[in-house]
Amino acid sequence: MGLTEANNIATLLPTARIELVVHDDALKTHAEALKNDWRFARVQMQAVEGNVETAIQRYKSHKSPDLVIIETDTIDESFPAKLEQLAEHCDANTAAIIIGPVNDVYLYRRLIDMGVSDYLVKPLTAETLAEVMGRTLIQRLGTTESTLVSFIGAKGGTGTSTLALLAAQANAGHFDEKTLFLDWAGGWSYACVSLGLESSTTLQQAARAAVTNDPDSLKRMVLKAADNLSVLASGLDTLLDDSIDEENAELLLNRLMENHPYVFLDLSGIAHKLQRRALQKSGHIVIVATPTLPSLRAARALYQEISDLRGGQTEHVHIVINKEGTSSTFDIPRKDIEAALPQKPAAYITNDTKLFTLSEIEGQSPLNMKGREALEAQINHLLQSILGKHPQEKKKEASSKGFSLGGLFSKDKGR
């Protein structure tokens, strides 16, 4: 592994082209294996035999990729000059990763200052290579410092929409994070109504603003619901028409994530194709079930399908038991729930009928009502479990450090 620790990339990466100019057989094997990695489904990857000199000659006549990975066995005083020469033949947006033979902090810092995205030391595992490439692509092409949390019900009637909204409100209020709540259910969405706002647009109109890259129009479609909490003001869609397609839905999501560090997405009542795309892209997935046998069976099946969809990676897939205590006579005990599920639930949410009824009558969030303390503690525990947060943690400023615009591979080359 190199000098930079790999993050846990667990999302569908953006469409991109990667070229590895390497001579190590293990690196070639890793690259070939990543073609079958679900995260790299939209990434075109090619391994080219050679080194930095090969890359210089290659990009004199070939368009440089989004990310080029250069392997070198020797790093001496002449190597930075070779990188400068390589930069003259690469597009301004090309990112670069160097794989070298020595672990040298001074060298690492020098390369980073020149504009190289990362420096790694051989030997590398396939997962380390995947994590660093994925992080670089997201920094260059996707959204950085933004987390997508998707909520999906194991079956109907689990209270998924309500729980997703409560979690978004707690993330914005208790944890002081800038949060967007998003519902892809079109005309069936009641997100705005739940927040005391009026729907003013449709998903089709929002998607059109995203496709045409009209940030001003899209900004007007996002309404402020509370401090740090916003919602896309959709809901005027006709009920029986089809929703937006997967490509436009993802593009809309990408645009919204550019300005919101946290996006909480409710997947209730939407087309399965949209659910699949969101589940692939999500940083965290919350499966909502109730303490009943049919719901637990469905949760177990859904967990397995999501695992298959994400290439067996379930570290960021969570199960929550909602509406506990609705019927104490028929609720399955916690010990039996935990024995039946593939993982221990991240949280149990009690069904406080009186609190929820009064909140609906008064048009307020249950988290703003008298007697909210138990519910508030459970929702906070849920966020701590899935996002690793603690109440005393406050929002940190997103780091502006990344691929330097004045660095090596960001120069204006007059192309």
Unreliable stretches (pLDDT < 50, length at least 5) are 1-7, 392-407, 410-415
Number of helices: 15
> For the residues shown, what is the average pLDDT?
85
Shape: elongated
Q: Can you summarize the main beta sheet?
A: 8 strands, mixed
The end-to-end distance, rounded to whole angstroms, is 35 Å
Structural class by sheet pairing and helices: alpha/beta
Order of helices and strands: EHEHEHEHEHEHEHHHEEHEHEHEHEHH
Work out the strand percent: 15-25%
- Strands of the biggest beta sheet: in what spatial order? 8-9-7-10-6-11-12-13
User: What Rg do the Cα atoms give?
Assistant: 24 Å
How helix-rich are the residues, as a percent range?
25-40%
Structure, explained:
The structure is a single chain. With 415 residues, the chain is an alpha/beta fold. The chain has 15 helices and 13 strands. The protein has helices at 25-34, 52-61, 79-87, 105-114, 126-141, 160-173, 191-194, 203-211, 215-220, 246-257, 272-281, 293-309, 334-340, 353-362, 373-387; strands at residues 16-22, 43-49, 67-71, 95-100, 118-121, 147-153, 179-183, 222-226, 229-232, 262-266, 284-289, 317-324, 347-350. Strands 8-9-7-10-6-11-12-13 form an 8-stranded mixed sheet, sandwiched between helices. α8 (203-211) crosses α10. The longest helix has 17 residues, at 293-309. Residues 1-7, 392-407 and 410-415 have low confidence and may be disordered.
